[in-house]
UniProtKB/TrEMBL annotation:
GO terms for cellular component: cytosol; membrane. It comes from Paramecium pentaurelia. Residues 39-185 form the Glycolipid transfer protein domain. The lineage of its organism: Eukaryota, Sar, Alveolata, Ciliophora, Intramacronucleata. Pfam families: GLTP. GO terms for molecular function: ceramide 1-phosphate binding; ceramide 1-phosphate transfer activity. It comes from the Eukaryota. This is Glycolipid transfer protein domain-containing protein.
Length: 226
C-alpha cells in the first residue's frame, strides 16, 4: 500500500485540533480541516478491508463537497455555519445535485450539492464513530464486526434504504479482528492499553465538534433536511 494511503492517527488528531481551535476563535468550523479529517480517517477503513471502505465511500464524496463549498464561498465566509446561512438565504439548502431543477425551477446550479444537507449526513457519521469507538473501549471482548453492525444500526441505518442496509451487512461480516484494528489505528507492536488510550484521545477530540454541530442543527431546525 502506498504510504499516502496509510492511516495516520497523528495527522487525524492534528486536523481535529485545528478545527477545534478555529471554533474557539470564530464560533464556526473550517471546511478544509473537516473535509480533510474525513478523507484521512477513511484511510483507516481502507486498510481494514475493501468492503468496509466501500461501505463508507460516500463519506469521501461528501468530504469533497465540503471542501468545494468552502472554496466557493471563501470570500464571503470562512466557516461551515456561515456557508449554511448563505445557502438558507438563497434557498439552496435542500439541493443534492439531482433535485436542483425541481427546487430552483430553472437550470442554474444543476450539480450543486448543499453544505447544509451534506454536513447533516456527516454529523450522523460522527455519531457512528462515537458509538463504535466507545463500544470498542467499553466491551473489550466484543467482536469488531458486531461493534460495527450495532453502531450502524443505531446511528445510520434509520436513514438508509433497504438495499443500502443489506449491503452494509456484508461489510460488517467482513470486518477484521480487534487486533487488526488496533494495529492500524495505533500502530504495530503497541499494547492494547496504548490502543485504548489512542481511541479515547480521538473520541475526546471529535466529541466537541459532534456536539457543536448537533447543537447548531437543532437550534436552526435543520435536522429534517431531505
Amino acid at each position: 500500500m502506498d504510504q499516502n494511503d496509510r492511516y495516520d492517527n497523528e495527522k487525524v488528531l492534528k486536523l481535529l485540533t485545528e478545527a477545534n481551535q478555529f471554533f474557539e476563535q470564530n464560533r464556526d468550523y473550517p471546511p478544509y480541516q473537516i473535509g480533510e479529517f474525513l478523507v484521512e480517517f477513511c484511510k483507516l477503513f481502507k486498510q481494514l478491508g475493501k468492503l468496509l471502505y466501500f461501505a463508507f465511500s460516500d463519506v469521501i464524496e461528501k468530504a469533497q463537497v465540503i471542501k468545494d463549498r468552502g472554496n466557493e464561498y471563501n470570500e464571503q465566509t470562512k466557516g461551515i455555519y456561515g456557508i449554511i446561512q448563505i445557502e438558507k438565504q438563497k434557498g439552496l439548502m435542500e439541493l443534492n445535485g439531482e433535485n436542483n431543477k425541481e427546487i430552483l425551477k430553472n437550470k442554474t446550479l444543476p450539480n450543486y450539492q448543499s453544505m447544509a444537507r451534506t454536513m447533516l449526513r456527516i454529523i450522523r457519521f460522527f455519531n457512528y464513530l462515537k458509538i463504535m469507538f466507545i463500544d470498542v473501549d467499553t466491551n473489550r471482548n466484543k467482536k469488531f464486526s458486531d461493534i460495527c453492525s450495532d453502531a450502524y444500526n443505531e446511528a445510520l441505518a434509520p436513514y438508509h434504504t433497504f438495499m443500502v442496509r443489506n449491503a452494509a451487512k456484508a461489510a460488517w461480516l467482513a470486518a477484521p479482528s480487534r487486533t487488526k484494528v488496533f494495529e492500524t489505528f495505533a500502530g504495530p507492536n503497541q499494547t492494547d492499553e496504548v490502543a485504548y488510550a489512542a481511541i479515547k484521545k480521538f473520541v475526546n477530540a471529535l466529541e466537541p465538534i459532534r456536539l457543536n454541530f448537533w447543537d447548531y442543527y437543532n437550534s436552526n431546525k435543520l435536522t429534517n433536511l431531505p
